[in-house]
Design a protein that fits this description.
The protein is mostly beta strands. Among the domains are: 94 residues, Immunoglobulin-like (Sandwich); 83 residues, Immunoglobulin-like, CATH 2.60.40.1120; 189 residues, Immunoglobulins (Immunoglobulin-like, Sandwich), CATH 2.60.40. The chain contains four helices and 51 strands. The two termini are 57 Å apart.
């Protein structure tokens, strides 16, 4: 890993992350007692449809037979006692900026909620991006269709075309029950990046130079985990390179690396892959022409390469083979880097470095070394001395001391002031008849060992200290069945049971949103799971790790309910007070753009007026007709705003201007229907 690079990148991204905060979902609310409310206006009956199997991934998301150490199980099938829903569909059209249909656009369908941070959300957490559950390609009329979609799922789309910029849903698509969601997608023309690579000394073109553009966060991952949006180009005999369409990947500044044999590698941080047009003074139709992305040309001149060489030795001072060494120089806007692996006797040679001072870091299994600072190019006598990381051994047993034979163990960072355990520094799935385990390569520090096994709650050892080069032995993890949680979910208007309601458990301080997923969601020490209520509205969750939980209750046609500070006790069943759900209000609206025409794909955000509220935020988007619906809104006072699709420009000041221009304050009561127009420009007729 490269901590310095990560730190610089995170600092450079804080502004963008701040604006992502405005789109975060709801968090915890207090367990307030609800009163009986007046029945809302009855809903009109919706037409029914024949139910068929909805779209599902090819692998059917089968739950693995052996435990893999996760407490985030695959979502169970919805209880058959729940309501039968008619599946919906997405019918869409892909057009260019002139309004002409685009044929041959590749459309991927996902059944996951999209992140406002896009690809970065997965790179920051080290997760693999989701795979599409279905694919389509637009016809000559630019249309595509996805049928048989479960309206209870979060659906999203991504569109690519060789000649156009990448497009992806910024908000989940609300597929209607038994209906069709009309989608209109506008693709912007792709732009190119081209130029020449020359040698500084001779001004001659360099053939075979490699240019690689990557997401800045991707470079912290192993090469086999690098982003699929990585772009490469190579110079021809005249030294010319061309990135034909930099927009086929999510549009953003990138880390551009330019290298060639015998020359110093250049690393351009925060490199703009496209240019932008100059602001125009021309006013057309009472509007100033917008700034647009344009093709960019950029030449590069490479200096002769320099080297750093030396030897890697182990604790016994013998040569260590197969150790990866990286040299990093990040001084200024243009840095340089190189890497190598040690040979049979520990020797290494890093070539292609720009002249300067470097930091050397190593990557090794079960070993580590302090980074070597201020190593100058030309130094061929560098010695990197490795030290052996700690080893942890112990046993996993049940409450009676009998050995478990199949389990997973994790070494988690511990501290003296809290039971909130931190990052997982080592883990291993174990099958052993005596319940024994051994974890190698554990960095020095304070830890607990977490045990995970089928049929048991996650349990923890006593804290201990791991010391480099030594063995921490006789660690015991005693597994128990944990506690259970049960309750009943009722309709607030008649106290009748609600079947098929989803009840899920989360950390007590959980806040729904992207920043939690990235920065707040270390591997949970609590049990994340879900259950569905039966015909009597009851649910039960077993084998929960003891502690405080936040519980979410969601049911089709009702406002969600959030309950915090729910305590689960070892060996006991916690009965949650009856949860009575209200239907809430409906907001039915339309978004108009700056030119007073309907705005397709606008992001619509509903946030409580009380900035300290921890629940109630909602988000949706306008469809191909500019319309949007937010159903089952909890009573309260809210601020409703809209923003245009970013189109990859990601200008936060434009988004803030849109929110200010479109802002509407709403007072919501249960059963209410609010018909709203949101205007991103002057209202029609003004």
């Amino acid at each position: 890993m490269r901590p310095l690079v990560v730190l610089l990148l995170v600092l450079g991204s804080l502004a963008a992350l701040f604006f992502a905060l405005t789109t975060l979902g709801s968090g915890r609310q207090s367990d307030a007692t609800r009163g009986v409310v007046v029945d809302p206006t009855p809903e009109k009956a919706k037409p029914t449809a024949v139910l068929v199997q909805p779209i599902a991934p090819a692998d059917a998301r089968a739950t693995p037979a052996a435990t893999d150490g996760t407490r985030q199980p695959v979502s169970p099938a919805r209880d058959p006692a729940g309501p039968k829903l008619a599946f919906g569909a997405i019918h869409g059209k892909v057009m260019n900026e002139e309004g002409n249909p685009i044929a041959g656009a590749r459309v991927n369908l996902f059944d996951v909620k999209p992140s406002t941070l896009g690809e970065d959300a997965y790179l920051l957490t080290g997760e693999d991006p989701p795979r599409p559950v279905s694919k389509s390609e637009t016809d000559d009329k630019g249309t595509f269709r996805f049928e048989q979609l479960d309206p209870r799922k979060d659906w999203s789309l991504a569109v690519t075309h060789d000649l156009y910029e990448h497009w992806a849903s910024e908000v989940e698509i609300p597929v209607p029950e038994g209906g069709v969601y009309p989608e209109t997608i506008l693709l912007k023309a792709g732009q190119s990046l081209s130029g020449f690579v020359y040698a500084v000394a001779t001004k001659q073109p360099i053939e075979g130079a490699l240019l690689v553009a990557e997401n800045p966060f991707a470079v912290t991952l192993p090469k086999n985990k690098r982003s699929q949006t990585r772009l490469e180009a190579m110079t021809d005999g005249q030294g010319k390179y061309v990135f034909a369409n930099v927009g086929i990947s999510p549009n953003q500044n990138r880390m551009l690396t330019v290298s060639a044999p015998g020359y110093a590698t250049q690393v351009h941080n925060n490199f703009a892959m496209v240019g932008t047009s100059k602001p125009s003074n021309r006013i057309k139709g009472n509007k100033q022409e917008p700034v647009r992305r344009i093709a960019r040309t950029q030449d590069f001149e490479l200096e002769p390469g320099h080297v750093i060489a030396g030897k890697v030795i182990g604790p016994d001072h013998g040569g260590m083979a197969g150790i990866e060494i990286e040299a990093l120089n990040s001084a200024g806007a243009i840095g340089s880097t190189g890497e190598s692996a040690s040979g049979k006797n520990g020797e290494f040679l890093i070539e292609g470095l720009a002249q300067g001072i470097y930091t050397l870091r190593v990557t090794a299994t079960n070993y580590d070394a302090a980074p070597l600072q201020r190593v100058e190019t030309g130094n061929t006598n560098v010695v990197i001395e490795l030290f052996e990381l700690a080893v942890v051994t112990g046993r996993v047993v049940d409450a009676d001391g009998r050995a478990l034979t199949s389990f997973t163990v994790k070494a988690r960072a511990a501290n003296e002031v809290s039971n909130a355990y931190g990052a997982v520094l080592a883990h291993k799935a174990v099958r052993d008849s005596e319940g024994r385990f051994e974890l190698t390569g554990v960095p020095e520090g304070s830890y607990v060992i977490e045990g995970l096994a089928e049929g048991y709650a996650s349990c923890f050892s006593e804290p201990f200290t791991a010391t480099q080069g030594l063995v921490a032995s006789d660690i015991v993890v005693r597994m128990t069945r944990g506690g259970s949680l049960s309750g009943v979910v009722l309709d607030a208007y008649g106290n009748t049971p609600i079947a098929g309601a989803e009840v899920s458990t989360h950390e007590n301080d959980f806040v729904d949103g992207n920043l939690w997923e990235i920065f707040g969601a270390l591997d949970s020490a609590m049990t994340r799971t879900k259950a569905f209520t039966d015909e009597q509205g009851r649910f039960t969750m077993d084998v929960l790790t003891p502690g405080l939980y936040q519980v979410h209750v969601r049911a089709r046609g009702f406002a969600p309910d959030f309950i915090g500070d729910v305590e689960v006790i070892e060996g006991q069943e916690t009965e949650l007070p009856a949860r009575t759900l209200i239907k809430g209000a409906t907001i039915d609206g339309i978004v108009y753009g700056r030119n007073a025409s309907v705005e397709c794909g606008a992001t619509v955000q509903l946030n409580p007026q009380d900035v300290n509220a921890t629940s109630g935020s909602r988000q949706t988007r306008s469809d191909g007709t500019g319309r949007f619906v937010i159903a089952n809104v909890q009573p309260g006072t809210y601020i409703l705003t809209a923003t245009r699709p970013s189109g990859g420009m990601g200008n936060p000041f434009e988004a803030l201007a849109d929110m200010k221009q479109s802002e509407v304050t709403l007072s919501i009561e249960d059963g209410g229907l609010h018909e709203i127009e949101l205007h991103l420009g002057p209202k029609r007729g003004n």
